Design the sequence.
């Protein structure tokens, strides 16, 4: 209810209302494009390809909101952009020139964003070629160069357009554009997932108890994500009194609000994107020995691949949680800013000791959020592997959807607070 009241208050403000409308329109464009088929495809053959369980390709269909299985212009979704972002962020640590760019402020970030776009287009073309001449080759009405090139260009252009769409939301709308596109795809899949689960129950493939357990699990995930996302560790800070001229400054007590889950749902998205990368071998050689090996040993639908996938997913989520937290929160900078303004943590010496204390606190609370994200994202994979309950919006989907919704509401509230401050100054 509080979320609805926040949206209602924001809707009354003209400039924020324009941003909300712009964001909604961009997401509608994404959903319309997700239903525009790629030219030159035989839809009957395409339907037969996915007539059975999608298996490893269910991950790609999740990110694309169903565009992958329907082979529409957004079939590649935003996955190449996420993979490119991961590669660039890792290279920023390894390459001194990129590290220097990241420290140059706005201009440096713009340059890295430009490199990310270039790499996204390259990865999009690679995946588009694999899908066209590999997995969907039998669905092509014509296999001449022009027909194949048309499909490849359309798929790569679709990813480039989604990347632009996300950047437009970042600039003119509300929330993180890339996350909202993934959110839109997940939400669009929920009705079909509910219908599929109900059909399985009517066909006696799953029991009523299994459905009830899943509903309880879904509610627990939603409540857990909200608690972790909103949770904070408040570190008290005391500012010393100082006299400047005839006035006395400082002396007040405040706190540093450190979020329990500083990284949000980014680690889960990054982990899924990275684990999808070896599965793209199925695009180029869907029936090859290598593709079968990947399906058996790495995919969440293989045996023992489901266990390998689960372990890798847990490890990557934990690593990305620490990695992204280190990017967004720098204990040394916080310590130096406090020291420059005469602030200190009671019982902790300013300087290096404060930095070590903040690092220790961040390490502990980040471990809690990392384990929570890993458990919620992994358990549904194991449940679906060993039960007949196959629902497209499992724990990972709920985790991403709820997390993105909370982050968007937070940005909306920040926009309202900033507007109130500007109105006060005027």
Sequence:
């Amino acid at each position: 209810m509080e979320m609805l009241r926040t949206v209602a208050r924001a809707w009354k403000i003209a400039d924020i209302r324009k941003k909300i409308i712009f964001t909604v329109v961009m997401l509608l464009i994404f959903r319309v494009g997700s239903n525009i088929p790629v030219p030159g495809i035989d839809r009957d053959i395409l339907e037969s390809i996915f007539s059975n369980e999608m298996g490893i390709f269910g991950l790609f269909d999740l990110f694309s909101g169903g565009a992958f299985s329907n082979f529409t212009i957004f079939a590649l979704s935003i996955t190449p952009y996420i993979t490119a972002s991961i590669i660039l962020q890792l290279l920023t640590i390894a390459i001194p020139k990129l590290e220097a760019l990241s420290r140059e402020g706005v201009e440096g970030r713009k340059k890295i964003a430009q490199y990310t776009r270039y790499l996204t287009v390259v990865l999009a073309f690679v995946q588009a070629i694999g899908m066209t001449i590999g997995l969907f080759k039998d669905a092509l009405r014509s296999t001449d160069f022009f027909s194949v090139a048309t499909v490849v260009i359309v798929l790569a252009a679709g990813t480039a357009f989604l990347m632009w769409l996300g950047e437009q939301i970042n600039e003119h709308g509300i929330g993180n554009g890339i996350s909202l596109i993934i959110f839109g795809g997940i939400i669009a899949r929920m009705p079909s997932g509910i219908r599929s689960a109900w059909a399985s129950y009517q066909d006696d493939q799953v029991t009523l108890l299994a459905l009830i357990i899943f509903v309880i699990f879904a509610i627990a995930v939603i409540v857990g994500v909200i608690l972790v996302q909103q949770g904070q560790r408040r570190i008290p800070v005391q500012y010393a009194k100082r006299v400047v001229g005839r006035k006395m400054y400082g002396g007040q007590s405040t706190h540093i609000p450190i979020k329990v889950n500083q990284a949000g749902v980014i680690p889960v998205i990054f982990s899924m994107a990275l684990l999808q990368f070896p599965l793209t071998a199925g695009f180029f050689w869907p029936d090859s020995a290598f593709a079968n090996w990947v399906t058996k040993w790495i995919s969440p639908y293989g045996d023992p691949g489901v266990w390998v996938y689960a372990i890798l997913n847990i490890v990557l989520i934990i690593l990305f949680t620490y990695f992204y937290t280190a990017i967004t929160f720098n204990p040394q900078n916080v310590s130096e800013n406090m020291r420059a303004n005469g602030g200190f943590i009671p019982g902790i010496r300013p300087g290096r000791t404060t930095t070590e204390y903040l690092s220790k606190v961040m390490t502990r609370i980040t471990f809690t959020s990392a384990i929570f994200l890993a458990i919620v994202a992994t358990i549904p994979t194991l449940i679906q592997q060993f039960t007949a309950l196959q629902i497209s919006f499992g724990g990972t989907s709920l985790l991403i959807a709820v997390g993105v919704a909370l982050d968007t509401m937070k940005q909306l509230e920040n926009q309202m607070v900033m507007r109130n401050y500007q109105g006060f100054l005027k």
Summary: The longest helix spans residues 352-386. The radius of gyration is 24 Å. The chain has 18 helices and five strands. Confidence is low (pLDDT under 50) at residues 422-426.
